[in-house]
Amino acid sequence: MVSRASRNESRRAGASLLECVAALALLGAGLGAVAATGTSALRTLNDAEAVLAAAQTGARVLDSLALHASPVAGTATHGRLRLTWTVSQAPHGSRFDLVIRDSAGREWFEAGGRAGRWPTRISVQP
User: Fold this and answer.
1) pLDDT tens digit sequence for 83-104
2) Residue 60 phi, psi (nearest 5)
């Protein structure tokens, strides 16, 4: 005959259904947090790549605008970036402004200066 004490020990050897459900819920919440962190990191990486591309593209355009004695306004597209620069006459030479936006209209880069000189104002938005 099986004693009462050994029967109670055999019942307590495993986990109850409630404990299993609680463990699975915690595991699911942890996996959800890992997925959210990965998504956030990917978004941050994509934004960083876009800022880098905007800064590099902007630097090339600014170099060409600064080197010309009389630059002209224009637009260009580089991947998902749209560059727009304007030129206006100022008392001491031409003044230029450059704005770079992505396809969604978000501004990534903005700069301005005078022809024949390196830009006096550069702003990169994250």
Assistant:
1) 888 888 877 777 788 888 888 8
2) -65, -45
Per the listing, tokens 């959800």 go with 32
Say how many C-beta atoms besides its own lie within 10 A of residue 93's C-beta: 14
Are the CB atoms for 98 and 75 separated by under 8 Å? no
Q: Which H/E stretch holds residue 124? A: strand 121-124
Q: If you search the block for the tokens 């956030």, which residue do you land on?
A: 40
Rounded to an integer, what distance in angstroms lies between the CA atom of residue 40 and that of residue 36?
A: 6
Q: What is the pLDDT of residues 48-71, one digit of tens each?
A: 887 788 778 888 888 887 777 777
| Residues composing the chain | 126
Non-local CB neighbours of 50 within 8 Å, separated by 6+ positions: 80, 81, 102, 108
pTM of the complete model: 0.57
2 vs 6: CA distance, rounded Å = 7
Report the amino acid identity of residue 9: E
- Which strands make up the sheet holding 81-90, listed edge to edge? 74-78, 81-90, 93-102, 107-114, 121-124
With vertex at residue 122, the alpha carbon angle to CA 116 and CA 124, rounded to the nearest 5 degrees, is 145
